[in-house]
Amino acid sequence: TEMSNPAPPKLLELAAHSLLNNEASVLPALEEFTIDLFPPLLTAAFARGHKKALKALVQAWPFPFLRLGSLIVQWPNQDSLQAVLDGLGTSSAPSACPRKSELRVLDLTLNFEQVQSKGASEALARFPFWLPSTVKAEMPQATTKPKPVEDSRKGLKQPWETVELHIDLFLRGPFKLDTFLSSLLTKVERSHGSLRLCCRKLHIEEMPFNSLIGILKTLELDFIQELEVFDWFRALSEQSLFATQLGRICNLRSLKLAYYHWAFPPEGEQSSSCFLSQLSKLGHLQKLHLSYSYLSGNLHQVLRCLQAPLHALEIRSCTLLDTDITYLSQSLHATCLRKLDLSGNNLSYMVPGPLETLLAKVSGTLQHLDLNHCRLKDAHLSAILPALCCCSHLGSLGLSDNPVSRAGLLSLLEHTAGLMELKRVLYPIPIECCVYLHGLSWGPVNKGRLCQVQAEMQRLLQAVQRADMQWSPPLP
């Protein structure tokens, strides 16, 4: 019956808690356990903070993979995590723990949806070095097949084999290592290769440079797929050393650099120690995000270093020139881009001209376009509309903080209604509803007028039968 279905898990949970109340009995019992008892027992031990039992369970874990993200979110307890860590890389004496661990991958990444349902804060507040990951960790091919065992209950007694620790790191200054993270790094350093620290997503912000290099040297660089660095590297020696480390992250898919002090060699000259030469080694790079950096007239030096076409390019507030936009439209990236973000650059003097050409080139693949705070007025929008309306795959469009009138906004809506995949538009507050100064909106918004404009937009959406489009103003 339906009432009887929940009974076995509850009885199993009660049995697990009963066993854990006497932690000394866990170790001898491990040899007799069938492998299906390990997950509920480890969950119960993690929930109650039974450190000795957790250490023993990890030392005898019968599966190649252990994912702790959901447990971390539900019971954010560093002592429990420390106990799990203590169980790694330790070969137990046969009399103490006769069962050999099959663990090859310990996954500590957090699931974004789980963190959101938890209130998005508790786990991260206690574990500030973790960044929620929307990418489920995949076991490397070398670990997908467990080692053959002679006996499924006792296992083979062999030296401890390499274990990968999967973690996403969010490191922000003023920098002081978290207790658990410090312990983790120390254990990895002292493991002589038996523990490999594998970070898929690494975010670094305002860290002392020596600490940054130390972290990078501890990580398995070929495992990093997303790197975000928000820092100033003023000294040439720092730039060179960071560039060398970057060149070793051979499987990098996404790179974000903000406030980076670019040092471009004179045209026609090449430097073996230049950041650009290391950038050229990133053969798998698909997403490049550059922001708050001075790139005027030098975008071509960055883009021509890349070996493969980018799928996403974000160049925010980098004082781009028309020559930069022209080069981008002629590059191999233009016909492959799915996302393009040019927000924060003054594009007003590039219309008519390079901007329409670029939009025409990306129209076959583009799905997300952001032109926020680009000083575009009604005439500029009218000029780019023909090219914009050719972007048949466009799903989202950002145009906030551009001095556009009510009439220009309604015209934009009417003309883009034919883009059937366009569902989300972030539109600017019309000039009738606020004051714009130097391309930025200033002062309070006239909410009454804005409500009138929004009502007109809703009527127009109904008239063109596009109730599925969501037009939203920017947040205050």
UniProtKB/TrEMBL annotation:
<dbReference type="InterPro" id="IPR001611">
    <property type="entry name" value="Leu-rich_rpt"/>
</dbReference>
<dbReference type="InterPro" id="IPR026271">
    <property type="entry name" value="PRAME"/>
</dbReference>
<dbReference type="GO" id="GO:0008284">
    <property type="term" value="P:positive regulation of cell population proliferation"/>
</dbReference>
<protein>
    <recommendedName>
        <fullName>Leucine-rich repeat-containing protein 14</fullName>
    </recommendedName>
</protein>
<keyword id="KW-0677">Repeat</keyword>
<dbReference type="GO" id="GO:0043066">
    <property type="term" value="P:negative regulation of apoptotic process"/>
</dbReference>
<dbReference type="InterPro" id="IPR032675">
    <property type="entry name" value="LRR_dom_sf"/>
</dbReference>
<dbReference type="GO" id="GO:0045892">
    <property type="term" value="P:negative regulation of DNA-templated transcription"/>
</dbReference>
<dbReference type="Pfam" id="PF00560">
    <property type="entry name" value="LRR_1"/>
</dbReference>
<comment type="similarity">
    <text>Belongs to the PRAME family. LRRC14 subfamily.</text>
</comment>
<dbReference type="GO" id="GO:0005737">
    <property type="term" value="C:cytoplasm"/>
</dbReference>
<dbReference type="GO" id="GO:0045596">
    <property type="term" value="P:negative regulation of cell differentiation"/>
</dbReference>
<dbReference type="InterPro" id="IPR050694">
    <property type="entry name" value="LRRC14/PRAME"/>
</dbReference>
<keyword id="KW-0433">Leucine-rich repeat</keyword>
